[in-house]
UniProtKB/TrEMBL annotation:
Self-association and partners: Tetramer of two alpha and two beta subunits.
Record-level Gene Ontology MF annotations: ATP binding; magnesium ion binding; phenylalanine-tRNA ligase activity; tRNA binding
Reactions catalysed according to its record: tRNA(Phe) + L-phenylalanine + ATP = L-phenylalanyl-tRNA(Phe) + AMP + diphosphate + H(+)
NCBIfam families given in the database record: pheS
Cofactor(s), names only, from the UniProt record: Mg(2+)
The protein's name: Phenylalanine--tRNA ligase alpha subunit
SUPFAM superfamilies per the UniProt record, alphabetical: Class II aaRS and biotin synthetases (SSF55681), tRNA-binding arm (SSF46589)
Top-level division of the source organism's lineage: Bacteria
Length: 347
């Protein structure tokens, strides 16, 4: 066989093989083409290789190089088509998973027990006509102290009892005389700040609650944490009395804790209420303190520009964690702030 014959046979064969692979549109026709051109036993390549023997030895080198080129090109074309058809044989086109097996349920998060409690409290108080109000967690001394009738030398303003934010001077540079600098900011120590913020912008009648975080430098133990939540309530109108306060708190406690919850007022002192009381709920035969309350002090009304002769009001502040813990039988406040899903997923 002459070299030129051999080469033109290869050219034709190569063209046919490439066409066959490129036009194969399923695994079967691709496999058929593979057997026809590249098949080890009867394939066209096999025939051509046999013809090599009939070529003049001086031309064999050229013929061999062309044959190698043929093999590479045809193989590449086959590989490409195989990839295009997602495999090349029937079995690899079959699904690689068992669609009859049950799926894996995605893990969904859920609302944290404290947030659940907050939503529940807002819902109960909302039914009594209390709207939600909000204030910033970073406060100024006016809203956290001054407007609430807490004078400059009051122990509640002590740096050891508050998280003051470092301003121009660092904490270590501060002297005692610097400690109550007006304008210095702090993390609010109570939600009573929101009473002031609401009254500054609205006129009576006012009926709001505010639920949010407060901060105090307490060492964490089963009942203390440096950050916790309070529910503040404020009701201002003409002729508001302490009887109204007691009724609202009793209706609230009964709704939140269930049953007819007895409530008890113990005389106390807060600079921003007069008279002031500690509020206890009777729970399973024991009295438990849930917060403080009282009639809004006239000095507070004056600081927001209300006339204490015309309006009266009550305010209360209850601990949200304490309410949540009582309701769910939680005994350690720190569990609420752990990331332990075994604990959290129970709620
Ligand atoms: N702010 C008080 C506290 O954090 C609670 C309180 C609120 C008392 C409103 C009276 C009226 O202890």
């Amino acid at each position: 066989m002459s070299l030129s014959n051999f080469l033109s046979t290869l050219d034709d064969l190569q063209q046919q093989a490439l066409d066959a692979f490129e036009t194969a549109n399923d695994a079967d026709s691709l496999e058929e083409a593979r057997v026809r051109y590249l098949g080890a036993k009867k394939g066209a390549l096999k025939d051509v290789q046999k013809q090599m023997g009939a070529i003049d030895p001086s031309d064999r080198k050229t013929a061999g190089m062309r044959l190698n080129e043929f093999k590479t090109k045809v193989q590449a074309s086959f590989d490409e088509s195989k990839a295009r058809l997602g495999g090349g044989d029937q079995s690899s086109l079959a699904p690689t998973f068992d669609p009859t097996l049950p799926g894996i349920r995605p893990q969904l998060g859920h609302v944290h027990p404290i947030t659940q409690t907050i939503n529940h409290l807002m819902e109960i108080m909302g039914r009594m006509g209390f709207e939600a109000a909000e204030g910033p967690e970073v406060e100024d001394p006016w809203h956290n102290f001054v407007a609430l009738n807490i004078p400059e030398d009051h122990p509640a303003r002590d740096p050891l009892d508050n998280f003051y934010l470092a301003t121009a001077k660092t904490t270590s540079e501060k002297t005692t005389s610097d400690r109550n600098v007006e304008g210095e900011q702090l993390l609010r120590s109570q939600t009573s700040t929101v009473q002031i913020r609401v009254m500054e912008h609205q006129s009576p009648p006012i009926r709001v609650i505010s639920l949010g975080r407060v901060y105090r430098p307490d060492d964490p133990d089963a009942t203390h944490f440096p950050m916790f939540h309070q529910m503040e309530g404020l009701y201002v109108d003409e002729h508001v009395t302490m009887a109204n306060l007691k009724t609202v708190l009793r209706v609230f406690a009964t709704n939140y804790l269930g049953g007819d919850v007895q409530i008890r007022f113990r005389p106390s002192f807060f600079p921003f209420t007069e008279p002031s009381v500690e509020v206890d709920f009777l729970w399973n035969g024991t009295w438990i303190e849930f917060g403080g309350a009282g009639m809004v002090d006239p000095a507070v009304f004056e600081s927001v520009g209300y006339d204490p002769e015309k309006v009266s009001g009550f305010a209360f502040g209850l601990g949200v964690e304490r309410l949540c813990m009582r309701r769910h039988g939680i005994t350690d406040i720190r569990d609420l702030y752990s990331c332990d899903m075994r604990f959290l997923s129970q709620f």
